[in-house]
Amino acid sequence: MENTIQLKVIDRTGVAHQLEAPTDMNLNIMEICKINELPVEGTCGGMALCASCHCYIESDTPLPEANENELAMLAEAFHVKQNSRLGCQIRINSNIDGIVIRLAPS
Amino acid sequence: MIETEIIIVGAGPVGLFTVFEAGLLKMRCHVVDSLPSAGGQLSEIYPKKPIYDIPGYPMILAGQLVKNLLEQIAPFNPGFTLGETVVSLEYKNSKYQLVTNRGTELMAPVVIIAGGLGVFQPRKPPINNLVNFEDRGVEYIIRDPEFYKGKKVVISGGGDSALDWTVFLVENKIPTEISLVHRRSIFRGQPDSVQKVMEMASQGKINLLTESEVVEIIPDSTGRVKSVVINHDTSGKKTVDTDHFIPLFGLTPSLGPIADWGLEIEKNAIVVNTVDYSTKKRGIFAVGDINTYPGKLKLILCGFHEGTLAVQSAFAIIHPDKRNVLKYTTVNGVNPF
Fold first, then answer.
1. Which of B23, B51, B113, B301 could form a disulfide with B286 if both were Cys (CB 3.0 to 4.6 A apart)?
2. Using the beta-carbon criterion (under 8 Å), do A72 and B117 form an inter-chain contact?
3. What is the pLDDT, as a whole number, of residue B325?
């Protein structure tokens, strides 16, 4: 469909969820997870301040570099790996079509 | 015992504005919050962030909004108990009696919960049996630095809190030995704090362990912390003897004791009736981010509306024999008490 992308989210029990997300609504991955009732709290509302949307990027999707706020939060979060990102800081747009992410332990 | 007409649990923007609306109806409020200053997440998490959807302000910084609200409610002289968490709530003799974690007792016929995201609690690192060592050598908050006098201390964390406390403890020569453990090679705290820590490390005043994590705690025969096992990314594990292990990874909110007050909870929020944001217990209301109802939006401006309606019903409970009539501030002004 036009203006939508596909993404795969693997939850904390290992179940993969194939999701569709609109690119024209200024959404991010945290919000898409919440809309689909996946167990992502998004406590801080997307300000990169709580790490409750911490996830691992498992596809080689090119993403913009994490900004200072996101890096600072990832420096405080637990279970951080090389491919860690905050879902709230990844915008839904056509560049990330097919992205695969795994939710980090809560 | 603090006795008042309305106890407001939560000193965030919605709790503060509820004081104002109650004040217009000449009802006295006392506000309790687990954080040491008013403002809730606006003060604690994002004081410098701009907010664009407060009516009448094209843009206002979160910290400034809190200042303005405190100024707005000052005429109504609310009481504050800050830095204390309400742990229990009981209904006795037609009033609610609340007790905080520090033993402060409060009593009122009406309680308005404006608890936001809940209680801010320390973020705990994922170490097996960590909780078994709480108050037995593991502390998540430094309350009294003198407590560590002459002790060996391991601090972990890479943010301002870990850096600032390390600098403070070294400069005041409180513990005999300090190790600072950080998972990364770079710190993300204030540049001058980072520089101080680096200087202290090069002068041998602290044992700085970067690219390292505390992975295990070893107890002595009484169950207190005896040492911690620290894993370095490349060189592996080593054991460091210590009296205290202090993980400083910031705060994270959770619903906390509110969940045990017999209210209806759905998805970590209190279910309310949108007529007046009352809970299923008469005299207890929930406003702002802590409540839920069909169509709920977690916005400050919606919380202001909720608090305004809640105090109308609170008036009927506190003054069952009086009738309340809406009066405009443009006509009546604000009458301090």
1. B113
2. no
3. 86
The CATH homologous superfamily of the domain defined by B2-121+252-332: FAD/NAD(P)-binding domain (3.50.50.60)
How many helices and strands (H and E) does chain A possess? 2, 5
Q: How far apart are CA A35 and CA B115, in angstroms?
A: 24
Q: Cβ contacts (< 8 Å) between A43 and chain B: which residues?
A: 117, 252-253
Q: Name every residue whose Cβ is closer than 8 Å to that of residue B306 and which is 6 or more positions away in sequence.
A: B14, B277, B287, B288, B291
Candidates A72, A58, A68; CA nearest to A102 is A58
Average pLDDT, integer, range B160-166: 91
Residues A76, B123: C-beta atoms closer than 8 Å: yes
Nearest to B46 among A43, A49, A72 (CB): A49
CATH class of the region B130-249: alpha beta
More confident site: A14 or B143? A14
Q: Judge contact between B337 and B76, C-beta under 8 A.
A: yes
Residue of B42, B43, B123 to mutate for A, most A C-beta atoms under 10 A: B123
Nearest to A75 among B117, B188, B298 (CB): B188
- Tell me the domain boundaries of chain B: 2-121+252-332, 130-249
pLDDT tier, B203 (very low <50, low <70, confident <90, very high otherwise): very high
Judged against a pLDDT cut of 90, whether residue B115 lies above it is answered with: yes
Q: Which domains does chain A have, with CATH numbers?
A: 4-103 (3.10.20.30)
B248 touching A, CB under 8 A?
A: no
Is the sign of the CA dihedral B290, B31, A47, A49 positive or negative? negative
Q: What is the pLDDT of residue A1?
A: 60
Which residues of chain B are within 8 Å of residue A78 when distances are taken between CB atoms?
123, 125-126, 249
Residue B103 or residue B186, greater confidence: B103
